[in-house]
Amino acid sequence: MPRKNKKSNGCLNFLMTCAILGGGYWWFIVKGNLNLNSLLPELQKIITPISAYIPISIPSPSLPTTANPTPITSKSIPSFPYPKTVPNGTTIRINGSTSMVEINKALKIAFQKTFINTTVNTDAKGSDLGILNLLAGKTNIAAISRPLTPAEKKRGLVAIPVTKDAIAVIIGVDNPLRRGLTQEQIRDIFEGKITNWSEVKGGNATIRIINRPPESGTRQSFQELVLNNGNFGNAANFTTLKQDSTTLILKALGKDGISYATYSQVVNQFTALTVPIDGLIPEAATYPYQRTLYYVYKEPATPAVQAFLGYVTSPQGQQIIEAAKLGTKETPIAKSQPSPNSINPEKKQADATKASWEKKEIRGIYLSRYQVTNNADEQTIRQRVRYYHSQGINTIIHGVWGNGCTMYNSKVMQQTLGFKSCPNEFNDQWLNWLIDEAHKQNMKVYAYFEKGIKIDKNSPIFDLAIRRKWIVPGVDRTYSGIEHYVLDVEIPEVAHLFRDISVEFVEKYPNIDAVQWDDYLGYYADLPGNVDRTKNLTNFVNQMITAMKKANPSVSFDICHHNPYWAKKYFAADWQNWKVDRVFIQAYNQANFATELIYAKKYNGVAITDKQLSRLKELIKNPQIKSILIFPLSGQPEQTASSVKSLVSP
């Protein structure tokens, strides 16, 4: 009896519940014209617990599926083992998205080095054309930046996820905008609702949108992520390129353009800046504009395709991909053992040159203090560091002092001279950003005190130095066409200024790796008076070094100077008696180059200019040259670094 009553009560409860739900449906949905989809999640919460108490078998309500794709599982994606060997003569052809150019290139190099006598040919004509070529049998693998369509899957195509990728919003390096934008602002710009940079606190200029062609996978992904599959604007300020090319976009940006590109293609570019979105840079895990990149093959997969995809999806392949996305860290490549007859002599020589270059203790490049002017932001500075790392540089020598003032806010400058820095514009945190990023890349940063104790008439302290009688009588004409004036460090006030600046600097930037002074730490032999200032200069330098070391013992004090004979005779710089940690010999004079190398071998390395890159291989091959510092007199350090890499890794 109790069981029968319980069943009857359960049925009655069920009928009452159905009546309530039915009445609610009629009132809210039919009469009230309410959207059912918005209520489904809540109805599910109500129906599920109710159905658990119904004693008879009733089917669960059938709710529509959402638009989200089915999560990718190991069961839904074919897997390929890491290839132990790959037959000689194997050729793999890849074509597709421009977003995967850097990834394709990195995997091509690594695969060919790992499996000798294999060839990987890559091209980038866009995701759609890559698919068409795959279906036509013109390529083995399509690299695409969008998911496959149902129609493409029906034709036997299979997509293997390769990695997550960020799409960066980019502007020209000369664009006045120096702030991030919100997702809403980006959407309004690309829909054509915001048309002037002043509307987002930029300059007063029309925003030019540089768009990719409709067949671009990157455009399709951007349209989905940013516009929610809505339409791009089509006003006069929109330009759609005929070719899907990031290079063409970069050239078109100018001062007022905006566009987008896969992050790996612009991370090391200096013609463009990436715009933070909602305060997030593309490397952030929660950056909003991310999509999946794929390699696609046609079933059945050939042995060559299986081998390549097995390599790509292996831990080693994934490390190479991640490095390629940032254009930075090189990943060790496990090479198979080639037969002696298969080694190309030219390749062997090139590999030996690269190996010798990488053995140099310091592979440095000099950036003048002007590299941080124009308020270079954090993103730009970090990009620059990563770029130099990608070119094989392991040390950045950056100007922090020059012509009598600092390129950072200095309390010593303020108290002694009445102003806190050079008049150039710069972000207060620029050097902290540079040091932090360099150390992340296993690089060093040397603070360069340009011009040392010398100034010219353009110096912000020139008039003050004249009034205070800080300048040694006469003009320093060491270099033709340049007139310098020497600050007299025999004057206690001047000596204390340099001492206090040095101490302040290593305390303000405790993680700096070294402080380096050049040949401007010296007098000029032809100054009037025929005075020997050698001893007093030595005392000044040693007192400055002692004070700096006491403040921060971990910082190296280095000089990049003339050879000891020349330095002492013509500049009163007896640096052999200075308490310096390292010495790099300037070999800027081509006529005396061989002589300078004799000295360079005895000390810590050599310094050359970008006009002497023809000497680079000679220096690399010389095991007695421990380090090489390169000073771009052209003022184009990016181009110089690229030239160095081309010479080292042709």
Let me know the largest β-sheet.
9 strands, mixed
**Rg result:** 33 Å
The number of domains: 4
The CATH architecture category of the largest domain equals Alpha-Beta Barrel
In CATH, the homologous superfamily of the largest domain goes by the name Glycosidases
The CATH topology assignment of the largest domain is: TIM Barrel
Q: Distance between the terminal alpha carbons, to the nearest Å?
A: 93 Å
Describe this structure in words.
This protein has 650 residues and is α/β, with parallel strands linked by helices. It has 4 domains: 2-51; 91-163 and 293-332, Periplasmic binding protein-like II (D-Maltodextrin-Binding Protein, domain 2); 165-291, Periplasmic binding protein-like II (D-Maltodextrin-Binding Protein, domain 2), CATH 3.40.190; 364-648, Glycosidases (TIM Barrel), CATH 3.20.20.80. Strands 1, 2, 3, 4, 5, 6, 7, 8 and 9 form a 9-stranded mixed beta sheet that branches. The protein has an 8-stranded parallel β-barrel with strand order 10-11-13-16-17-18-19-20. It has a two-stranded antiparallel sheet with strand order 14-15. Mean pLDDT is 84; it is low at 1-12, 17-75 and 335-342. Residues 334-344 have a biased composition (Polar residues). Residues 331-354 are annotated as: Disordered.
Quick synopsis:
By secondary structure, this protein is an alpha/beta fold. Residues 1-12, 17-75 and 335-342 have low confidence and may be disordered.
Features of this protein?
20 strands, nine-stranded mixed sheet, 650 residues, D-Maltodextrin-Binding Protein, domain 2
